[in-house]
Amino acid sequence: MHFHQKPNTYVTNVEIKVSDLQRSLQYYQEVIGFQILQQEAYKATLTVDGQTALLTIVQPETVEEKVGQTTGLYHFALLLPSRRDLANIINHFHQKSVYFGASDHHVSEALYLNDPDGNGIEVYADRPEQEWLWHFNQVHMVTEPLHIRSILAEGDGHWHGLPANTVMGHIHLSVSNLADAEQFYIKGLGFDIVTRYGTQALFISTGRYHHHIGLNTWQSANAPKLGEHQVGLKAFSLRLNDEEQATTMKANLRAIGAPVVEVDGGFQTEDPAGNVVLLKFY
User: Fold this and answer.
1) Which of 28, 155, 168, 202 fits 87 for a cystine, CB–CB 3.0-4.6 Å?
2) Does the pLDDT of residue 1 top 80, yes or no?
3) What's residue 134's pLDDT?
4) Residue 227 is part of which domain span?
5) Are 103 and 146 in contact (CB under 8 A)?
6) What is the DSSP letter of 212?
């Protein structure tokens, strides 16, 4: 889990818009395994350890379904501590009759679901980083069938919700123009490219993780940004290391014409596809 510690820049919290807060709370507690950290009339913050906010769900006063292709959330990804934890959640999903997709990416083993509003969720476990293959500065990743029986053999049958040291492993975004997104995240925020899939997808990270952020145009090339009241991504937060990094980021963002707005605990910006990014010290 050192990839999700300072001095790396990584996702700490994802905030999504939903159409029915109570329905979403039931789903995220009973199916995914979160706990409620804080709840208001139309907003709830979810946690796995009782202290740290990983996911925030908001029901806008005026809510609209997402219609057609837009930019925004492709999925957010919850990183489990071990393969055993992955086995246990697979058993839990089977018991709840929850449909999920599954893929082996070589660096990780992953499950894919959608919440009641169609927000994409990945739940995954990393393989040991010593097993990852690097070709110069590019990490080898594939999408192959997942060997679920092999994973289930490591389970212990215990499910008590998401383990306390689960983290927000990464976020995957739908963008309208990959070149514009690359400039924003590489030149503006200082990420490194670790995998490139032609002209349609880009995986980026800090500290040689396989990816803290994924970017693609698979279903969103030249698409408009998500509407303010449409269900989907509201914002996501990245951890800042120190004031020096923040100052450098602000200067680089302004140099490429990206907005910089001061907020409590850090600052806010927006990528060219309209995805709101919060840069926070905590």
Assistant:
1) 155
2) no
3) 97
4) 2-280
5) yes
6) S
Distance, in Å, from the CA atom of 199 to the CA atom of 181, rounded to the nearest integer, reads 12
Q: What is the pLDDT of residue 273?
A: 98
Which residue carries 């500290």 as its tokens? 207
Could you give the 3-state DSSP secondary structure of residue 158? Answer: coil
Q: Which residue, among 141, 145, 144, 272, has the nearest Cα to 217 in the 3D structure?
A: 272
**What's the mean pLDDT in 193-202?**
95
At 237, list the tokens.
């937060």
DSSP result, 54-109:
EEEEE--SS-B---S--SEEEEEEEEES-HHHHHHHHHHHHHTT---EEEE-SSEE
Burial-class residue 157 by CB neighbours within 10 Å (0-12, 13-18, 19+): exposed
Q: Indicate the average pLDDT of the chain.
A: 96
Tokens describing residue 127: 């393989």
Tokens 């605990």 sit on residue? 265
The per-residue pLDDT for 150 is 97
Cα angle 35, 37, 206 (rounded to 5 degrees) comes to: 85
Q: How far apart are CA 31 and CA 162, in angstroms?
A: 10
Our count of domains for the chain comes to 1
Q: Two tokens at 53?
A: 């906010």
Q: What are the Cα distances from residue 54, in Å, to 37, 46, 129, 171?
A: 10, 6, 24, 12
Tokens describing residue 93? 């999903």
In tens, the pLDDT along 99-157 reads 999 999 999 999 999 999 999 999 999 999 999 999 999 999 999 999 999 999 999 98
Residues 6 or more apart in contact with residue 160 via CB below 8 angstroms: none
CATH classification of the domain holding 84: 3.10.180.10
Q: Are strands 11-17 and 53-58 parallel, antiparallel or unpaired?
A: parallel
